[in-house]
Amino acid sequence: MSRFTGRVAVVTGAAQGIGAATALRLAEEGAAVAVVDLTAERAQATVDAITQKGGTAKAYGADVSDLDAVEAAFAAVVEDFGALHILVNNAGITRDNLFFKMPRADWDLVLTVNLTSAFNCAQAAQKYMVRQKYGKIVSLSSRSALGNRGQANYAAAKAGIQGLTATLAIELGPYNINVNAVAPGYIATAMTAATAERVGATAEEHQRLAAERTPLRRVGRPEEVASVVAFLASEDASYVSGQTLYINGGAR
Ligand code: NAP
């Protein structure tokens, strides 16, 4: 498959987990991938995995909650690869706590890293996309956007991603830019392992409980999110925009 031959993709938070799987998938299908994480050193393992398979990638360090850092990183990507066609807003964090004891600092941090960073990256990327009259933006929302105990901050941020997505689809559509989001359920990554640890469970036990309440009776894998992100970033989804697609094994 080579749906992304000649395309340049930026994937944020791509040192591990869903971001790394997405970077690998886009590269496997021919994209040159800018692997962005907090530091270029952290991103290098994903770059190595891509280049070992014959793909093209480069590591960039940027805190995506810092607009200046994002603009500098994206300018470097365009300098290195000549364009920016696909943006995957994947970087995210959790700071779970019941609402009555949630520190204001954790509210601010989670909103900033999960939602404001998507604003920063989309705003920096659209400059290039509008000019070339082509772009695909896919952002990571979450099933938690529908509400999740202990995640008032994260749920609000991920619901915000859906509103941002719907609005950017309206404003950027006239420039041939598709804007969509995916909303995964439980995916086995370092993020969910950290959640397990916080509630005093092993990763395996936590996954088993999540699997029991999922119609497909298992949790998801990062590659199963990456394939849907790739679909939305491809011409297979050329008339899909403003949507949030849930990837949650059938859970309601
Ligand atoms: P992960 O394993 O924790 O990976 C997230 C990556 O983002 C890490 O490499 C992290 O770096 C990086 N990052 C964090 N803050 C950043 C910043 N300010 N600038 C640049 N990079 C930053 O998480 P994941 O499970 O793969 O999740 C990826 C995305 O999917 C997130 O947006 C998450 O909210 C969403 N999601 C995940 C699930 C799930 O079940 N796993 C479900 C729904 C949605 P450090 O490790 O150095 O902090």
Automatic annotation (TrEMBL):
Broad EC category: oxidoreductase
Keyword Oxidoreductase recorded: yes
Matches recorded under SMART domains: PKS_KR (SM00822)
Family of this protein: Belongs to the short-chain dehydrogenases/reductases (SDR) family.
Lineage: superkingdom: Bacteria
Domain Ketoreductase: 7-185
Keyword Oxidoreductase appears in the UniProt entry: yes
Matching SUPFAM superfamilies: NAD(P)-binding Rossmann-fold domains (SSF51735)
Name of the gene encoding the protein in the UniProt record: fabG
EC number: 1.1.1.100
MF (Gene Ontology): 3-oxoacyl-[acyl-carrier-protein] reductase (NADPH) activity
Pfam families documented for this protein: adh_short_C2
Keywords attached to this entry: Oxidoreductase
Xref: InterPro entries: KR_dom (IPR057326), NAD(P)-bd_dom_sf (IPR036291), Sc_DH/Rdtase_CS (IPR020904), SDR_fam (IPR002347)
Name of the protein: 3-oxoacyl-ACP reductase FabG
